[in-house]
Every structure is written in C-alpha cells, then in structure tokens.
Amino acid sequence: MTVKQPLIITVDGPAGSGKSTVSRILARKLGLPYLNSGAIYRAVTLAVIDAGVSFDDRPRVAEVISRFSLRSVEEADRTRFFIGDREVTDRLKDPDITAQVYRIADESGYRKLLVDLQRRSVQRHGVVAEGRDMGTVIFPDASIKFYLDAPAEERARRQHLELVSRGVPSRYEEVLLKLKERDHRDLSRTDAPLLAAPDAVRLNSGGLTIDEVVGRFLDHIQKQCGSP
Predict the structure, then answer these.
(1) Which of 196, 210, 209 is nearest to 24 (CA)?
(2) Per-residue pLDDT at 227 exceeds 70
(3) Nearest of 152, 177, 153, 175 to residue 164 by alpha carbon
(4) Edge-to-edge, what's the strand order for the sheet holding 127-131?
(5) Rounded average pLDDT over 134-141
(6) Is residue 126 part of a domain?
(7) In this structure, is residue 16 part of a structural domain?
(8) How many Cβ atoms are within 10 Å of 71's Cβ, its own excluded?
(9) Which residues pair with 147 in a beta bridge?
(10) Helix (H/G/I), strand (E/B), else coil: 223
C-alpha cells in the first residue's frame, strides 16, 4: 500500500493487547518507520539498572537518559533492539525489567525527558507509533489513531506463553496479577494515563488473529487515505 507522507499512525493500548506486533506489521506494510515506545521505557529502565543508579536519584537518572541511545533493526518476524553494540531484545522482556519499568514510566519528570526522543522519530516519512499515550500526548495531531484492547485474562495468557517460549520460569496466575497491577498504575497515574483518544478507532483483539487485526486497521487506513 502506498500512502501520502508524512503519515502519523498511533496504536495505544494496555500490555499484552498485541499492539507491538500489529504496529510492526502495519509499519512494514505501509513502508513507515516503527516506534515502540514500550521498548524505549524498558531500555531506559535497563540502562538505569546497569548504571547502578537509584530510580529516586533524579539528577543521575536524567543524566542516564541524556546519554541514552536505542537502535532497532527490523527483521522478518521481529524487531531487535541494541543499546550501543549490545543486543537487549530479550533482556527488555525479562520479569525484573517489567517489574520496574513503572519507575520510569510513572515519573512525570522522566516521561517529559523522553517526549522529544519519541517525537524526533517522525521525519518526512511519518511513523507508526505504539504505546500508551501516543495518540493523547506524544502525537495528539496524528493522522489516524487506534486503541487496541483485550480482556486481561487473554493478555496475561499471551504474555505467559511468550515467557515460556523464551524459557523464563513463570506462572500464569502471577503474570495475570502483575498485569492487573500494571493496568491499574497505567490507568490511574496523573501524568499521561492510559486512555483512548476521543478520535481513536477502538478494537478489542480478544478472539482475533494478528492478521485479522492488521486487516481491519489497514481497511480503516485505506478508507481515510484513499485507495492504495
């Protein structure tokens, strides 16, 4: 599909809704860059941990963020992430990072430092940006906005299967509990809470395949942007 550029498409939603996979495929089909904001927050969390810095030490965390650089490489079935020359793709999904990413994501001062980093990803080619506040805060004037959701039990099942496939010990019940805790934090934080933009197209991915979700998104984009 060929689209007029720049085209900014946002895909927001809670953890495990499928937004990362859908957004990556969507970006590839549209020939647009892909922005995974979750990977940015996770990578910053990892960088702070590796630097031995306390999340409460705002000046030092700000220093880590100022030096931060995350590089991504697109492959056929996934996106690989690098901090410097070190690949951190699998590390970003480890339970200890998941458990502490809120220390960056829920702190308004840290979020503000990362706003420009995310907005700079938009060049003349546009972007497909996924996260929790892409359509409400980062790109409020986006061309097209989506909000992808799914029942908590379904999202936890997906996350549990992913952990098991990577050989990470986990229990479904524990994954579900932590996911609900993350949902509560995302929905209730004062700065940039998780919510659907008023003009977002909402879709529940429960019971749908990835291809079906991508197909519905592409149909909507086609209607908005004209025939390919």
Answers:
(1) 210
(2) no
(3) 175
(4) 34-36, 127-131, 8-12, 144-149, 201-204
(5) 94
(6) yes
(7) yes
(8) 12
(9) 12, 202
(10) helix
Does the N-terminal peptide bond of residue 14 adopt cis geometry, omega within 30 degrees of 0? no
DSSP for residue 93: G
In a domain, 185, yes or no: yes
Q: What is the pTM of this model?
A: 0.86
Output the domain CATH number for residue 147.
3.40.50.300
In a domain, 1, yes or no: no
Q: Which of 24, 32, 26, 40 is nearest to 7 (CA)?
A: 32
In terms of Cα–Cα distance, which of 128, 123, 155 is closest to 143? 128
CA 114, 29, 186, 73 dihedral sign is: negative
Closest C-alpha to 31, from 128, 108, 100: 128
- Which tokens hold the place of 149? 């959701």
**Tens digit of each residue's pLDDT (9 = 90 or more) over 7-39:** 999 999 999 999 999 999 999 999 898 999 999
Q: Closest Cα partner for 65 from 105, 114, 28?
A: 114
Domains contained in the chain, number? 1
For 123, the domain range is 8-212
pLDDT at res. 197: 96
Map tokens 């079906």 to a residue.
212
Gap between the Cα atoms of 74 and 161, Å rounded = 23
Q: CB under 8 Å to 87, separation ≥6 — which residues?
A: 80, 81
Digit-coded pLDDT (tens) for 97-114: 999 999 998 898 998 899
- Contact between 10 and 137 (Cβ < 8 Å): no
Contact yes or no for 213/130 (Cβ under 8 A): no
